[in-house]
Design brief:
The structure holds two protein chains of two kinds.
Chain A lengths: L1 E7 L2 E7 L5 H6 L21 E6 L9 H7 L7 E3 L9 E5 L1
Parallel strand pairs in A: 1-5
Antiparallel strand pairs in A: 1-2, 3-4, 3-5
Chain B lengths: L6 H13 L7 H7 L5 H15 L2 H11 L5 H15 L5 H11 L4 H5 L6 H16 L2 H12 L3 H14 L9 H24 L3 H30 L13
Helix pairs in contact in B: 1-12, 3-6, 3-8, 4-5, 4-8, 4-9, 5-11, 6-11, 8-9, 8-12, 9-11, 9-12, 10-11
Amino acid sequence: MARVVFHRSGEVFADDVADGSNLVVRAGIKRFPYPHLRYGCGMGKCGKCACLVVSGAMHLPEPNWKETKVLGERIGGGYRLACQLWISHDIELAQD
Amino acid sequence: MSELMTPDAFRTALENAIKGNSANKSPFSVAWAEGKLTRAHLARWAENHFHYVGPFAEYLAYVYARMPADYVEAKDFLLSNMYEEEIGGDRHTDLLIRFAEACGTTAQRVKDPDNMSPTTRCLQSWCYAVAMREDPIVAVAALVVGLESQVPSIYRRQTPTLRGRYGFTDEEVEFFDLHIVSDEIHGERGFQIVLEHATTPELQQRCLKICEIGAQMRLLYTTALYHDYVEADLPLRELDLAA
């Protein structure tokens, strides 16, 4: 299990998720972080699920080609696309 | 007479019904995963696959229309699936055509129904028949749980091979990437609908049976692709598979 802490609009939400969970998949089936996570296409195109990785970035793989294309310079600022991440370690994320 | 299964036991039974006939076992899928297909073989796959997945929103639309009005969440899930297949982002079939073109065929050939095999036509017809005629919960078990939920595991095996062994670019194989996420959502929604609404032993058994048949249909389809387009170039013995 991995602990996910999610910040949005001044509130903090947290829950445990199974190893290998994708937060957009979970939200798509109405599980945490639903209804707090903002997301759209689920295919790394729209960028709506972009999150700032507050902590735990060291456990994530390098950004893939979709993240590079959609996020551009925001990657350097610590942003990732939730739809492209499969979570297996504790992580803290924030959405604007 | 069977007894009503708990949701956990029923889910396990559904998963087992699919596993025994997983399309991952077909010689076409094995050859694909081993990097032994040519781009021409993959082009034939795309020309067939278009006619199976292309109407997926239409299949679901028939189920949606027949789903009882008070199954609001189930109806919403189906509507979301349809929207995501068609206009949530890139249209999924457009990405399939992009892959097909990278394999050397054309959009015109992909869209032409004369280029699908009889077995693909059979799978497509079965999907329409289930969507139009079965109890809507049984139809969800067939189309979403039995067929769509298999996709992430299939493409997880096949996509790295497309990049690494076949040399496709990221953009060319985007069709496969997006299905790893979207079909995982769709498959899970399908499980939720079936687990919630198959509330009698009889309905549970019908869901299990059709799930098994759906998985058999997909296995039949992929196996036929091997016999129709690949076998002459790549005999079974070269795949280390029993005939």
